[in-house]
Amino acid sequence: MTASAIQPETLVAPALELQHVRKQFGGVVAIQDFSLAVRRGEVVALVGDNGAGKSTLIKLVSGIYQPTSGTIRLDGQDAHLSDPSAARAHGVEVVHQDLALADHQPVFMNMFLGRELVAGPFRRLDKKAMARQTQALVDELDVRIPSARATIRDLSGGQRQGVAISRATHWAQQLVLLDEPTAALGVAETAKVEDLILRLRERNIAILLVSHSMDQVMRLADRIAVLRRGKQIGTRLTAQTDKNEIVSMITGLQAADE
Q: Hey, what's the torsion of the CAs at 234, 94, 53, 57, to 10 degrees?
Protein backbone atom coordinates (compact mmCIF):
# COMPACT_ATOMS: atom_id res chain seq x y z
CA MET A 1 0.00 0.00 0.00
CA THR A 2 1.38 3.41 -0.93
CA ALA A 3 1.58 6.23 1.61
CA SER A 4 -1.05 8.18 -0.32
CA ALA A 5 -3.45 5.23 -0.06
CA ILE A 6 -3.30 5.07 3.74
CA GLN A 7 -6.43 6.49 5.34
CA PRO A 8 -5.77 9.14 8.07
CA GLU A 9 -7.71 7.23 10.74
CA THR A 10 -5.38 4.22 10.37
CA LEU A 11 -2.47 6.38 11.49
CA VAL A 12 -4.08 7.17 14.85
CA ALA A 13 -3.87 4.57 17.62
CA PRO A 14 -7.27 3.27 18.81
CA ALA A 15 -8.60 4.74 22.04
CA LEU A 16 -8.93 1.14 23.28
CA GLU A 17 -7.23 -1.97 22.01
CA LEU A 18 -7.63 -5.41 23.56
CA GLN A 19 -5.04 -7.92 22.37
CA HIS A 20 -5.60 -11.64 23.06
CA VAL A 21 -7.19 -10.94 26.45
CA ARG A 22 -8.00 -13.93 28.63
CA LYS A 23 -9.62 -14.02 32.06
CA GLN A 24 -9.81 -17.03 34.35
CA PHE A 25 -11.36 -17.40 37.77
CA GLY A 26 -9.68 -20.51 39.14
CA GLY A 27 -10.55 -23.28 36.70
CA VAL A 28 -13.32 -21.27 35.00
CA VAL A 29 -12.42 -19.44 31.80
CA ALA A 30 -14.65 -16.35 31.57
CA ILE A 31 -12.97 -14.79 28.52
CA GLN A 32 -10.98 -16.65 25.86
CA ASP A 33 -8.49 -14.86 23.59
CA PHE A 34 -10.52 -11.68 22.95
CA SER A 35 -9.20 -8.93 20.66
CA LEU A 36 -10.94 -5.69 19.72
CA ALA A 37 -10.10 -2.09 18.85
CA VAL A 38 -12.39 0.90 19.48
CA ARG A 39 -11.53 4.23 17.86
CA ARG A 40 -12.47 7.75 18.87
CA GLY A 41 -15.82 8.86 17.53
CA GLU A 42 -16.98 5.24 17.20
CA VAL A 43 -19.64 3.19 18.97
CA VAL A 44 -18.85 -0.53 19.24
CA ALA A 45 -21.58 -2.75 20.69
CA LEU A 46 -20.72 -5.82 22.75
CA VAL A 47 -23.53 -8.38 22.55
CA GLY A 48 -24.22 -11.91 23.76
CA ASP A 49 -26.52 -13.91 26.03
CA ASN A 50 -26.31 -13.79 29.83
CA GLY A 51 -23.04 -15.36 30.90
CA ALA A 52 -21.33 -14.59 27.59
CA GLY A 53 -18.63 -12.51 29.28
CA LYS A 54 -19.75 -8.98 28.46
CA SER A 55 -19.70 -7.70 32.04
CA THR A 56 -16.34 -9.36 32.64
CA LEU A 57 -14.87 -7.46 29.70
CA ILE A 58 -16.31 -4.19 30.97
CA LYS A 59 -14.75 -4.88 34.38
CA LEU A 60 -11.38 -5.64 32.78
CA VAL A 61 -11.33 -2.34 30.90
CA SER A 62 -12.57 -0.40 33.94
CA GLY A 63 -9.89 -1.82 36.26
CA ILE A 64 -12.21 -3.89 38.47
CA TYR A 65 -10.59 -7.08 37.18
CA GLN A 66 -7.15 -7.63 35.69
CA PRO A 67 -6.60 -9.96 32.72
CA THR A 68 -5.03 -13.37 33.30
CA SER A 69 -3.11 -12.80 30.09
CA GLY A 70 -3.17 -10.48 27.10
CA THR A 71 -2.78 -6.73 26.76
CA ILE A 72 -5.01 -3.68 27.24
CA ARG A 73 -3.79 -0.63 25.33
CA LEU A 74 -5.17 2.92 25.64
CA ASP A 75 -4.20 5.48 23.01
CA GLY A 76 -1.50 3.12 21.78
CA GLN A 77 0.15 2.60 25.18
CA ASP A 78 0.05 -0.52 27.35
CA ALA A 79 -2.24 0.18 30.31
CA HIS A 80 -1.94 -1.66 33.61
CA LEU A 81 -5.31 -0.99 35.21
CA SER A 82 -4.80 -2.14 38.77
CA ASP A 83 -8.08 -0.64 40.00
CA PRO A 84 -10.91 1.67 38.84
CA SER A 85 -9.01 4.80 39.85
CA ALA A 86 -6.18 3.77 37.50
CA ALA A 87 -8.70 3.40 34.67
CA ARG A 88 -10.16 6.83 35.41
CA ALA A 89 -6.64 8.29 35.41
CA HIS A 90 -6.31 6.96 31.86
CA GLY A 91 -9.49 8.76 30.77
CA VAL A 92 -11.84 5.77 31.02
CA GLU A 93 -15.33 6.35 32.47
CA VAL A 94 -18.07 3.79 33.12
CA VAL A 95 -21.84 4.08 33.32
CA HIS A 96 -22.96 0.98 35.22
CA GLN A 97 -26.47 -0.45 35.24
CA ASP A 98 -26.94 0.74 38.83
CA LEU A 99 -25.62 4.21 37.81
CA ALA A 100 -23.54 4.59 41.02
CA LEU A 101 -25.28 7.84 41.95
CA ALA A 102 -25.72 9.21 45.47
CA ASP A 103 -29.51 9.52 45.74
CA HIS A 104 -29.54 12.05 48.58
CA GLN A 105 -27.04 14.43 46.99
CA PRO A 106 -27.76 17.12 44.39
CA VAL A 107 -26.87 16.61 40.74
CA PHE A 108 -23.77 18.80 40.91
CA MET A 109 -22.30 16.85 43.83
CA ASN A 110 -22.81 13.63 41.87
CA MET A 111 -21.12 15.17 38.86
CA PHE A 112 -17.99 15.85 40.95
CA LEU A 113 -18.24 12.80 43.23
CA GLY A 114 -14.71 12.04 44.39
CA ARG A 115 -13.36 15.01 42.43
CA GLU A 116 -14.91 17.89 44.32
CA LEU A 117 -13.75 21.44 43.64
CA VAL A 118 -12.43 23.40 46.60
CA ALA A 119 -11.57 27.07 47.04
CA GLY A 120 -10.20 29.51 49.59
CA PRO A 121 -7.57 29.15 52.29
CA PHE A 122 -9.64 26.55 54.14
CA ARG A 123 -10.24 24.54 50.93
CA ARG A 124 -13.98 24.44 51.37
CA LEU A 125 -16.22 22.86 48.76
CA ASP A 126 -16.81 25.30 45.90
CA LYS A 127 -20.46 24.41 45.44
CA LYS A 128 -21.18 27.45 43.25
CA ALA A 129 -18.49 26.50 40.73
CA MET A 130 -19.57 22.86 40.66
CA ALA A 131 -23.23 23.81 40.18
CA ARG A 132 -22.33 26.29 37.44
CA GLN A 133 -20.19 23.80 35.50
CA THR A 134 -22.78 21.06 35.92
CA GLN A 135 -25.60 23.28 34.65
CA ALA A 136 -23.54 24.31 31.62
CA LEU A 137 -22.86 20.66 30.75
CA VAL A 138 -26.43 19.38 31.13
CA ASP A 139 -27.67 22.35 29.08
CA GLU A 140 -25.13 21.60 26.34
CA LEU A 141 -26.13 17.93 26.27
CA ASP A 142 -29.84 18.76 26.54
CA VAL A 143 -30.33 16.71 29.70
CA ARG A 144 -33.63 18.04 30.93
CA ILE A 145 -33.54 18.24 34.71
CA PRO A 146 -35.05 20.93 36.97
CA SER A 147 -31.59 22.29 37.82
CA ALA A 148 -28.07 21.25 38.79
CA ARG A 149 -29.15 21.63 42.41
CA ALA A 150 -32.00 19.11 42.14
CA THR A 151 -31.66 16.03 44.35
CA ILE A 152 -31.02 12.77 42.50
CA ARG A 153 -33.84 10.90 44.28
CA ASP A 154 -36.36 13.39 42.84
CA LEU A 155 -35.40 12.66 39.21
CA SER A 156 -36.91 10.14 36.81
CA GLY A 157 -35.00 7.09 35.62
CA GLY A 158 -34.15 8.75 32.31
CA GLN A 159 -32.99 11.93 34.04
CA ARG A 160 -30.75 9.91 36.36
CA GLN A 161 -29.27 8.06 33.40
CA GLY A 162 -28.71 11.42 31.72
CA VAL A 163 -26.81 12.64 34.78
CA ALA A 164 -24.66 9.48 34.84
CA ILE A 165 -23.80 9.81 31.15
CA SER A 166 -23.15 13.54 31.57
CA ARG A 167 -20.70 12.76 34.38
CA ALA A 168 -18.91 10.28 32.13
CA THR A 169 -18.86 12.87 29.35
CA HIS A 170 -17.38 15.49 31.68
CA TRP A 171 -14.49 13.32 32.86
CA ALA A 172 -13.82 10.94 29.96
CA GLN A 173 -10.76 11.79 27.91
CA GLN A 174 -10.97 8.93 25.47
CA LEU A 175 -13.36 6.10 26.35
CA VAL A 176 -16.81 5.60 27.87
CA LEU A 177 -18.13 2.15 28.79
CA LEU A 178 -21.93 1.88 28.83
CA ASP A 179 -23.43 -1.20 30.50
CA GLU A 180 -27.11 -1.58 29.54
CA PRO A 181 -27.78 2.20 29.70
CA THR A 182 -31.50 1.99 28.92
CA ALA A 183 -32.47 -1.39 30.41
CA ALA A 184 -34.98 0.05 32.91
CA LEU A 185 -36.30 2.95 30.81
CA GLY A 186 -39.46 3.51 28.79
CA VAL A 187 -39.56 4.34 25.09
CA ALA A 188 -39.38 8.14 25.40
CA GLU A 189 -36.58 8.14 27.98
CA THR A 190 -34.66 5.52 25.99
CA ALA A 191 -34.78 7.80 22.94
CA LYS A 192 -33.34 10.68 24.99
CA VAL A 193 -30.50 8.54 26.31
CA GLU A 194 -29.71 7.25 22.84
CA ASP A 195 -29.51 10.82 21.59
CA LEU A 196 -27.09 11.54 24.44
CA ILE A 197 -24.90 8.63 23.35
CA LEU A 198 -24.77 10.00 19.82
CA ARG A 199 -23.78 13.42 21.21
CA LEU A 200 -21.00 11.67 23.08
CA ARG A 201 -19.76 10.16 19.84
CA GLU A 202 -19.82 13.60 18.23
CA ARG A 203 -17.38 14.72 20.92
CA ASN A 204 -14.89 12.21 19.44
CA ILE A 205 -15.11 9.87 22.42
CA ALA A 206 -14.80 6.11 21.90
CA ILE A 207 -17.81 4.20 23.22
CA LEU A 208 -18.11 0.52 24.14
CA LEU A 209 -21.81 -0.29 24.55
CA VAL A 210 -23.31 -3.39 26.18
CA SER A 211 -26.97 -3.82 25.26
CA HIS A 212 -29.51 -6.64 24.99
CA SER A 213 -31.65 -4.56 22.61
CA MET A 214 -30.86 -5.52 19.02
CA ASP A 215 -32.88 -2.57 17.73
CA GLN A 216 -30.78 -0.23 19.86
CA VAL A 217 -27.54 -1.87 18.76
CA MET A 218 -28.48 -1.50 15.10
CA ARG A 219 -29.40 2.16 15.62
CA LEU A 220 -26.32 3.23 17.57
CA ALA A 221 -23.36 0.97 16.81
CA ASP A 222 -20.84 1.34 14.02
CA ARG A 223 -19.60 -2.20 14.68
CA ILE A 224 -20.92 -5.17 16.67
CA ALA A 225 -18.73 -7.66 18.55
CA VAL A 226 -20.38 -10.96 19.53
CA LEU A 227 -19.46 -13.10 22.54
CA ARG A 228 -20.74 -16.58 23.35
CA ARG A 229 -19.69 -18.37 26.56
CA GLY A 230 -16.55 -16.27 26.79
CA LYS A 231 -15.51 -16.91 23.21
CA GLN A 232 -15.21 -14.20 20.58
CA ILE A 233 -17.56 -15.24 17.78
CA GLY A 234 -16.92 -12.37 15.39
CA THR A 235 -17.22 -8.65 14.71
CA ARG A 236 -19.44 -7.12 12.05
CA LEU A 237 -19.88 -3.68 10.52
CA THR A 238 -23.45 -2.71 11.35
CA ALA A 239 -24.02 -1.42 7.81
CA GLN A 240 -23.05 -4.83 6.42
CA THR A 241 -25.12 -7.10 8.67
CA ASP A 242 -28.64 -7.46 10.08
CA LYS A 243 -30.35 -8.59 13.27
CA ASN A 244 -30.83 -12.13 11.99
CA GLU A 245 -27.10 -12.66 11.47
CA ILE A 246 -26.21 -11.19 14.87
CA VAL A 247 -28.83 -13.32 16.65
CA SER A 248 -27.52 -16.41 14.84
CA MET A 249 -24.02 -15.61 16.06
CA ILE A 250 -25.27 -15.12 19.62
CA THR A 251 -27.28 -18.35 19.71
CA GLY A 252 -24.71 -20.55 17.97
CA LEU A 253 -26.63 -21.12 14.75
CA GLN A 254 -23.65 -19.51 12.99
CA ALA A 255 -20.11 -20.71 13.62
CA ALA A 256 -17.44 -18.43 15.00
CA ASP A 257 -15.17 -16.59 12.59
CA GLU A 258 -11.85 -18.31 11.98
A: 70
Q: What is the DSSP letter of 106?
A: B
**Cα of 196 vs its chain's centroid, Å:** 12
pLDDT value at 85 more than 70: yes
Q: Is the C-alpha dihedral spanning 140, 146, 150, 155 positive or negative?
A: negative
CA distance linking residue 18 with residue 166, whole number of Å: 26
- pTM metric for this prediction: 0.86
Q: What is the pLDDT of residues 23-35, one digit of tens each?
A: 999 999 999 999 9
Among 255, 251, 243, smallest CA distance to 49 is for 251
Q: Is the separation of the CB atoms in 154 and 186 below 8 Å?
A: no
The 10s digit of each residue's pLDDT in 198-256 is 988 988 999 999 999 999 999 999 999 999 999 999 999 999 999 999 999 999 877 67
CATH topology of domain 40-101+157-251: Rossmann fold (3.40.50)
Q: Which of 90, 24, 97, 89 is nearest to 56 (CA)?
A: 24
From residue 52, how far is each of 24, 168, 210 by CA, in Å? 14, 25, 11
